[in-house]
UniProtKB/TrEMBL annotation:
Lineage: Bacteria, Bacillati, Bacillota, Clostridia, Lachnospirales
TM segment ranges: none
InterPro entries given in the database record: NAD(P)-bd_dom_sf, Sacchrp_dh-like_C, Sacchrp_dh_NADP-bd
Residues in the signal sequence: none
Domain Saccharopine dehydrogenase NADP binding: 5-136
Name this polypeptide is given: Saccharopine dehydrogenase family protein
């Protein structure tokens, strides 16, 4: 049916590639392109021989012209951006120049400011409309499936959703004293930033990890979770009817927090360049170099993740509560695609989002967050492609 150009060859890209190859009726031909071509070739070697035709290429996606040249030679129907958030705008520019649809899993973030928001990408809306092409923003799990879950609840179960809590729990154990489950630079920047949530249309800011709650997660048990700023809050605040408050919580063990505090206190999480032996280095980038590669955690990680949305609102004048979540097992993911659940829960929705665009179900000109599309075909696809969801109308609420 179609051709996809996949940019990036890291943890998430590896899952996207595996899933596209499983879904060969939709993804007839793919090109894996990244800064380090050997990683693309290694993926191709692992998966070659199936029905999806695989190409590889070297590309520096910070350079719009290089992406344009690659698009012009491969001629994809869609670009799946699973490189880093820093490349979002250059890749969107290349899609505009060539008239090709776009999908990513994380919103643009300037390299020198640890601040992520949608304003830069939303500014492309009119240009994408005029070009008649689609951009799907934030189509991983969170953001991504959390937005689809919210849209599904809004479509089927609520007239108004007043309170939304997004809960991201990882009970996986990789056996290292400290490691991050995805790109450490992105992950640590996210956690050491101030927290925030939306209340009555306004952002309320907290100190980093200031708000801690304890929650008993289905299939995982009791976990400490901390309020973080998260990018889907910004779009969901605009796209859900009657919303009064949206919060995002992520679980971290005490051991993780202790390591992070020490690293922060000694300056290792800073993004301010320092002079070292006559060279400018960014402490956080150096830390990334010494930490275990997230891709190496797969074979070691045991346990499950649970990510979902708890909503309180009204339907036909009656109050209603609803919790929809997915539980994913690290070892099962590794068995299936050779990656742990964090990459899996991001890569599967990216493949599904790309399938939605290629099959025309999510095809309209402009720049959209996932909750602006019909959630139903996506929800069906989650069950089919490895992320089955469960729901309850009687959840324990977060206080
Ligand atoms: P990795 O660091 O494992 O992989 C990133 C890949 O991008 C690497 O292959 C890297 O190449 C490549 N890359 C970096 N810069 C460039 C460039 N200038 N040109 C071409 N390729 C480049 O990250 P992950 O796979 O863990 O994450 C991928 C994306 O997914 C990130 O944007 C992350 O924020 C997002 N994400 C989203 C989640 C969600 O639920 N929505 C959850 C987890 C992640 P090289 O190998 O040379 O370094």
């Amino acid at each position: 049916m179609g051709k996809a150009l996949i940019i990036g060859a890291g943890g998430v890209a590896s899952v996207v590639v595996h899933k596209c190859c499983q879904n060969h009726e939709v993804f007839e031909e793919i090109c894996i392109a990244s800064r380090t071509k050997s990683k693309c070739d290694a993926l191709k070697e692992k998966l070659d021989g199936g029905k999806t035709i695989i190409h590889t290429a070297q590309v520096d996606a910070d350079n719009t012209q290089e992406v344009i040249d690659l698009i012009e030679s491969f001629k994809p129907d869609l670009v799946i951006n699973v490189a880093l958030p820093y490349q979002d705008l250059t890749i969107m520019d290349a899609c505009l120049a060539t008239g090709v649809d776009y999908l990513d899993t994380a919103n643009y973030e300037p390299k020198d400011t640890a601040k992520f928001e949608y304003k830069w990408q939303w500014e492309y809306k009119e240009r994408f409309e005029q070009a008649g092409i689609t951009a799907v923003l934030g189509c991983g799990f969170d953001p991504g499936v959390t937005g689809v879950f919210s849209a599904y609840a809004q479509k089927h179960y609520f007239d108004e959703i007043h309170y939304l809590d997004i809960l991201d729990a990882n009970a996986g154990d990789h056996g290292y004293p400290f490691a991050t489950n995805f790109n450490p630079e992105i992950n640590i920047r996210e956690i050491t930033a101030k927290g925030s949530y939306i209340e009555n249309g306004n952002w309320v800011e907290t100190e980093p990890l200031e708000i801690k709650k304890v929650y008993e997660f289905p299939e995982i048990g009791e976990k400490d979770m901390y309020l973080l700023h998260h990018e889907e809050l910004e779009s969901l605040a605009l796209n859900l009817n009657g919303i009064k408050r949206i919060r995002f919580f992520m679980t971290f063990s005490q051991k993780y927090i202790t390591h992070l505090n020490v690293l922060e206190n000694v300056g290792m999480t800073s993004i301010e360049p320092i002079e070292y032996n006559g060279q400018q280095i960014q402490p956080l980038q150096f830390l990334k170099a010494v930490l275990p590669d997230p891709a190496s955690l797969g074979p070691r990680t045991k346990g499950k993740t649970n990510i979902g949305c708890i909503m309180q609102g009204v339907k036909d004048g009656e109050p209603r509560n609803y919790y929809v979540y997915n539980v994913c097992d690290h070892e099962e993911c590794y068995k299936e695609v050779g990656s742990q659940a964090i990459s899996y829960t991001t890569g599967v929705p990216a493949m599904i989002g790309a399938m939605m665009v290629l099959t025309g179900k999510w095809k309209k000109p402009g720049v959209f967050n996932v909750e602006e599309f019909d959630p139903d075909p996506f929800m069906d696809a989650l069950n089919k492609w490895g992320l089955p969801w469960q729901e309850t109308f009687n959840p324990t609420l977060v206080d």
